Amino acid sequence: MSQIETIWAHRPLVVNFAQRELKARYRRSLLGWLWSLINPLTTIMIYSLVFSVFLRAQAPPAGDGSNVFALYLFSGLVVWALFAAMVNGPMDWLQNVADLLRKIQFPADAAIFGGAASAVVQSLIEAGILLAIMIGIGNVSWAMLTLPYVMLCAMLVGLGIGFFVSIANAYFRDVRYLVGVVLNIVFFLVPIVYPPSIIPEEHWGLPLLDLMELNPMFHFIEASRDAVYFGDVSWGRLAFIGAVSVTVFLAGWTFFVRKSVDIAEEL
């Protein structure tokens, strides 16, 4: 039986894990799911204040000619937040079922997929808010239809990396902290909270913009902005992020399946 068939056969278990993660997320919280709105909006307000007010960064014109920095920022953060959740999450999702794995036999990746499904719910809420705002201000184009594809690609590439780091973290707990450091570095190396226009083409003899574009996440973020903010589509970019996401996801999943057989005792 292939791993796809195995996961499909255990889909009730995946759903159960997803429901458990969703219920636990804001348990005993007075505001509950309102935090899923408050957290991203607060982040956007802070970064908008720092970069557009203090540093006077200007957002490039959107598809409708407007240049609201907060919306430019939001259109990139939606995809980044999903990617980061998929990278960080598997370490916790695997650890949360450690006791269960020691008692009964089931595919460990079911817990990962269940956790991923719960994280997608949060991302859909954020994307829904972004799209509602864009529609409300009249910045609408058919390019928006590519946003689900971009989000799917971000989910797959993040989950592929998450599969790798979850196994590594089971053996070396330092991995969790290292992943956090690396994500913070990548976050600021990719133009998420600032436009690429503020980066000099060359500095210290290095072609900074060209080097930035070598980072695959640059193209995931720009594809998201193309879809929602600019109202444009780069088919080459969409093909590129699709190829990267499928390759990384399959490599990570295959690695996880092979290494997770006896992982319970390491958790």
Q: Can you walk me through this structure?
A:
- With 267 residues, this protein is an all-alpha fold.
- 72% of the residues lie in helices and 0% in strands.
- It has 11 helices and no strands.
- Helix 4 (69-96) packs antiparallel against helix 8 and helix 7 (147-171) packs antiparallel against helix 8.
- The mean pLDDT is 88.
Task: From the structure above, extract its key features.
267 residues, mainly alpha, 11 helices, globular
Give a short synopsis of this structure.
This protein has about 270 residues and is mainly alpha-helical. It has eleven helices and no strands. Helix 4 crosses helix 10 and helix 10 packs across helix 11.
What is the count of distinct domains? 1
What percent of the residues sit in helical stretches (DSSP H or I)?
over 70%
Query: Which sheet architecture does the biggest sheet show?
Result: none
Shape: globular
Number of helix segments? 11
Write the layout of secondary structure elements.
Elements: H1 3-9, H2 11-25, H3 35-54, H4 69-96, H5 98-103, H6 109-137, H7 147-171, H8 174-189, H9 208-213, H10 216-230, H11 235-259
